[in-house]
Amino acid sequence: MVTFVRSIMFSQQVFLQGLGLGASLIMAIGAQNAHVIRTGVRGQHVLATVATCIVVDVVLIALGISGLGALVEASPTLMSVARYGGALFLVWYGWRCWKSSLQGGASLALSAQDKSMTLGRALATVLALSLLNPHVYLDTVVLLGAVGSSLAGEARTSFALGAMTASVLWFSALGLGAQRFASVLGRPSVWRVIEACTGSLMLVLAYLLVRGA
Tens digits of per-residue pLDDT, 15-54? Predict the structure, then answer.
């Protein structure tokens, strides 16, 4: 009984550290976050999209802290694949965002195809943007995993819960907030600015990845 109670105890200080580090990593606007905003503005499958992002993050954080992050980090080959693969993905997505912004194709008006989007297609899209972006793995599995797995048992659990809580709070606020302010964010001129800023950030992140930052 004592062992069980100790296993569920956690440190508030370490929890807040995990919350802070998790938030600092997840709040940068990237492909996944931009998609959540877009989904919120369009008001389609918002809760399902938010829930999927949270589940993906929780699973990857758990895998990283359980030791997978240290395994990946210890392999120069895997790190190189993740770094350069992530950079290529970010360059592609950044170019796509800039192209959309410059051509004025960033309007969020729903087309007939958008209106008929099924739940399955919506989930497939968010899973692709989440799992095909190596930068997500570097943040959750490698970085958070490296910090969390270096802690003792109880502290490790507290850190993991903090990082997971950051994902829950952020994606919920992002999706529901975008839905709440859809009338403003949905304006083509506003979205073009968002696309341009997102594209710039993707290119900066790609540079930092290649540089090994």
Answer: 999 999 888 888 876 778 888 887 888 788 999 999 999 9
Report residue 63 as tokens: 């895998």
d(CA 67, CA 100): 40
- Measured in residues, the chain has a length of 213
Q: In this structure, is residue 163 part of a structural domain?
A: yes
Determine the structural domain holding residue 162 and report its residue range: 13-211
Residue 21: which of 160, 150, 149 has the closest Cα? 160
What's 45's DSSP letter? S
pLDDT over threshold 90, residue 74 = no
**Burial class (CB within 10 angstroms; exposed 0-12, middle 13-18, buried 19+) of 172:** middle
Q: Are 16 and 162 in contact (CB under 8 A)?
A: yes
In angstroms, the first-to-last Cα distance of the chain is 45
- Total of domains in the chain: 1
The model's pLDDT over 159-186, given as tens digits with 9 standing for 90+, comes to: 999 999 999 999 999 999 988 888 887 7
DSSP alpha helix (H) spans, the chain? 2-8, 12-26, 31-42, 46-63, 69-73, 76-103, 112-115, 119-131, 134-137, 145-149, 153-180, 182-185, 188-211
Using CA atoms, how far apart are residues 120 and 208, in angstroms rounded to an integer? 34
